[in-house]
Amino acid sequence: MTREEAWNLLTEYNQDEFHLKHAETVENTMRYFAAKLGYEEEQDFWGIVGLLHDLDFEQYPDQHCIKEQEIMRERGIDERLIHAVASHGYGITVDIKPEHEMEKVLYAVDELTGLIGAVVIMRPSKSVQDLELKSVKKKFKNKNFAAGCSREVIERGAEMLGWELDNLITQTIEALRTFQD
């Protein structure tokens, strides 16, 4: 599947600007981690997984990570891509466990990019370029801030990867700096 085909599929099921921007944020974050972790040859695949991870969320929020599998299978999309996309709902909506390092990264950064995005909006600079770990950690501890971003999922994702939470947050900030202001 090409990036263009993935985008066309995504926009068939998603029109909300917020969801489309989130999809692109996760796509670019996944591409960054693919290169950083030694999967340069799979950067496009990692990016497409990130782009399509919430394919069904806008139209089928109650069937998130379930309906997208059906949609993709109807179109003959590779099972590896379907498994990767659906696995980010592990323990929430599906029992498809993230197995590959890429799936664990997706699981961890999906919620985290949302939290970091909310922190950036509150900053005077409105930029990730001057964002520090301590600012994210402060907001991470405040359960009322960006309450829709599950801290438990972020922590579980870091644990799955065998990374310290601070390392995950720092690397995700670095990823976001490569393509955001």
What is the general shape? globular
Largest sheet: none
Helix content: 55-70%
Number of domains: 1
Number of strands: 0
**H-E string:** HHHHHHHHH
> Which runs of at least 5 residues are low in confidence (pLDDT < 50)?
none
Radius of gyration: 15 Å
Strand content: under 5%
The number of helical elements comes to: 9
Q: What do the pLDDT scores average to?
A: 96
Strand-pairing-aware structural class: mainly alpha
Roughly how many Å apart are the termini? Answer: 29 Å
How would you concisely characterize the structure shown here?
With 181 residues, the protein is mainly α. It contains nine helices and no strands.
3D architecture notes:
The protein has about 180 residues and is mainly α. The protein has one domain (about 5-175). About 60% of the residues lie in helices and about 0% in strands. It is built from 9 helices and no strands. The protein has helices at about 5-15, 15-35, 45-50, 65-75, 80-85, 100-120, 135-140, 150-160, 165-175. Helix 1 (about 5-15) packs parallel to helix 3 (about 45-50), helix 2 (about 15-35) packs antiparallel against helix 3 and helix 3 crosses helix 5 (about 80-85). The longest helix has 22 residues, at about 100-120. The protein is globular and about 45 Å long. The mean pLDDT is about 95.
